[in-house]
Amino acid sequence: MKSDYMHTRSPQTEQLISLIRQNESFTSWLRAVRTQGLSSWCIGAGAVRNLVWDALAGRSAPSALADVDVAYFDATEISGERDAELQRALEALAPTVPWEVTNQAGVHRWFESVFGRAVAPLHSLDDAIATWPEFVTCIGVTLTDDDEIRVIAPHGSLTFDDLFSMTIRHNPVRATVANYNERVAKKNYAARWPSVTILPAQC
Q1: What does the pLDDT average to over 171-182?
Q2: Residues 158 and 188: beta-carbon distance below 8 Å
Q3: Is 127 exposed, middle or buried (0-12, 13-18, 19+ CB in 10 A)?
Q4: pLDDT per residue over 133-168, tens digit each?
Q5: Rounded to whole angstroms, how far apart are CA atoms 81 and 89?
Q6: Which helix (H) or strand (E) holds 70?
Q7: Is this model's pTM higher than 0.85 or not?
Q8: How far apart are CA 177 and CA 200, in angstroms?
Q9: Which of 61, 129, 159, 175 suits a disulfide with 179, CB 3.0-4.6 Å?
Q10: Which long-range contacts (C-beta less than 8 Å, at least 24 apart) are formed by 162-165?
Q11: How far apart are CA 198 and CA 27, in angstroms?
């Protein structure tokens, strides 16, 4: 796995970084999360996907986001109270943003109650991102103290190829076929982006 795909300086990575820098909302989200002093964090998944797909579709107005996913990793504090505290802090900074904050180090504590099966603890933010349900959403971006945008894409070119070809592909690392099919139906991708390609789930 490539834990920081940006270091390959691929054209697709550069294109993503350019899109982020041109988007005042996205850059303001990154700056807001950075103020929380987390050592390992990103904004990822649907926020990144929507940014790119809206640009590819030539939309002047952004698609609605159910949430702006903030993922972080802190194995020293995995209580839900910490997530709630961070979310309240971000809401105070940007109250109109639909923040969703999750410590990936604690996902194993609630995964079974939500998805019906137990999973092992994750070991890092990269490890967590690699488990997200579609390869196109296995991506996160973070902002360093010197304003460098870094891209985390554990599956490397597979994620970027799907991102820029508007392809939905099942990531079977943790998401079952049923999970994937449910998400595809719920997200209504084809109606939102008519050029999207949705591939059948992997068993």
Answers
A1: 93
A2: no
A3: middle
A4: 999 999 999 999 999 999 999 999 999 999 999 999
A5: 12
A6: strand 68-72
A7: yes
A8: 9
A9: 175
A10: 162/134, 162/135, 162/136, 163/12, 163/16, 163/48, 163/49, 163/52, 163/136, 163/139, 164/12, 164/15, 164/52, 164/56, 165/197
A11: 29
